[in-house]
Amino acid sequence: MFKNFKSVGKCVFGRGSFNQLDSILAEKRANSASYVVFLLDNYFKDKALAQRIPLQPQDHLIYINVDEHEPTTEQIDELNQHIRKLSPTLPVALVGIGGGSVMDITKATSMMLTNDGLSTQYQGLNLIKNQGVFHVGVPTLAGTGAEVSMTAVLTGPTKKLGIKCDYTVFDQIILDSELVADVPQNQWFYTGMDTYIHCIESLTGTMLNEFSRSYGVKSLELCREVFNQFGQSAEGDEKLMIASYMGGLSLTYSEVGVCHALSYGLSYVFGYRHGIANCIAFDELPDYYGESVTEFKSMVKKHNIHIPKGLSKNWTEEEVAKMAQTAYALEHMWKHAVGAHWKEVITKEKIMALYYRM
Ligand code: NAD
Ligand code: ZN
Predict the structure, then answer these.
(1) Domain extents for the chain?
(2) Which of 11, 50, 77, 340 is 20 to 30 A from 66 via CA?
(3) C-alpha dihedral (259, 159, 82, 43), degrees to nearest 10
(4) In this structure, are residues 293 and 282 in contact, taking their beta carbons and an 8 Å threshold?
(5) Rounded Cα distance, 115 and 159, in Å
(6) In the prediction, which pLDDT does 3 show?
(7) Given this model, what pLDDT does residue 15 score?
(8) pLDDT tens, 56-106?
(9) Which residues line ligand 1 (CB under 6 A)?
(10) What is the number of H-type helices and E-type strands within the chain?
(11) Which atom of ligand 1 is nearest to the CA of 65?
């Protein structure tokens, strides 16, 4: 069976395009009672962007704190209950403005507003029954591809797994690179590298096909321009936003690989954020990704980025085994990276040895 995937409904791209949000929402506001809920990354609380939100008196602005942990099922359930209590009717739109975390929170909350129960019930593929609330994604970090993907990644009590179905995809996205202009350098690199690693993994596995290759090759070319040449600049920011979008599309028809499997373990057991967890893992994967790891190291050096090292000396065997278990369970990633026979090659002990290098 070939994947029959759903793409983002509409996309606005360009510097300053955030100003178009008001007119986009106007189409949804049928009468004076129609209200919009904005989910804004806490980082922007005292920043100019908070003042630029086209808030009407009946709307609600909710600040989302993503500093302590990546999105959890508990957080989605609380937010869902909170929004349901705001009014007897549903919002006409849910707008998420922030990094990959806020985008995933927006996608998941949009689903939970129209589907009963708890978000843990829906972690998996095609478990959502009803279409969600019209949802808009406005990324303020470039790299995760969450703006274009079908997944809302959530950490639950027993697993880190996305809610994934046709409905999860954003109905509208606004790609305005002005919003990523002031990202601190380490964060810029960690999130941006998510795209670089998406492309390397997508392009070097068994599920690769021309669709994924075309987007992946172009995205990788843009990443190289950004990290080797343009850096954090107006031009570099535009390129990284498009690289993120195309890297996400490359993944849609392919898969991530060894680095993401290990990264999920690091995030699940120790709470490392996705971008930095990828960098910690990728740095130790020359056996799998060869020259790309050499290139990655040169980019780290060029931008003087801190990649944590020597972590495993403080880990217990149980913790390493738990990470290995988390990584091993991501069968589709190993299958893509190693092949259908991956279980003959990859063992939990082998994965533990990779963690001990970190
Ligand atoms: P993030 O959203 O977790 O944010 C990281 C930090 O940067 C936060 O403290 C945030 O407040 C801050 N921040 C956001 N915008 C900023 C700005 N413009 N300037 C300064 N600081 C800013 O980081 P991320 O790397 O974009 O996203 C990681 C999340 O994305 C993880 O939860 C991961 O699971 C998820 N993810 C999802 C997909 C998907 O397909 N859905 C793919 C990859 C990653
Ligand atoms: Zn990723």
Answers:
(1) 10-180, 185-356
(2) 11
(3) -20
(4) yes
(5) 21
(6) 84
(7) 97
(8) 999 999 999 999 889 999 999 999 999 999 999 999 999 999 999 999 999
(9) 41-43, 66-67, 70-71, 98-102, 104, 140-141, 144-146, 149, 151-153, 179-180, 182-184, 187, 191, 194, 273-275
(10) 14, 9
(11) 11
Ligand nearest to the CA of 149: 1
pLDDT in tens, 303-337: 999 999 999 999 999 999 999 999 999 999 999 99
Q: In this structure, what DSSP letter does residue 162 have? A: E
* Regions of the chain where pLDDT drops below 70: none
Atom of ligand 1 nearest to the CA of 248: 40
Q: According to the model, what pLDDT value does residue 160 have? A: 81
Q: What confidence score (pLDDT) does residue 158 get?
A: 83
**Cα(144) to centroid(ligand 2), Å:** 6
CA angle 213, 214, 217 (to 5 degrees): 75
Ligand nearest to the CA of 48: 1
Per CATH, the number for 185-356 is: 1.20.1090.10
How many Å lie between the centroid of ligand 2 and the Cα of residue 260? 6
pLDDT at 5: 87
User: Ligand 1: which of 68, 101, 103 to mutate, most ligand atoms within 8 Å of CB?
Assistant: 101
pLDDT score for 68:
86
What 3-state DSSP class applies to 346? Answer: coil
Task: State the CATH architecture for 10-180.
Answer: 3-Layer(aba) Sandwich (3.40)
**Cβ proximity of 216 and 203 under 8 Å:** yes
| Closest ligand relative to 153 C-alpha | 1
* Atom number, ligand 1, closest to the C-alpha of residue 190: 25
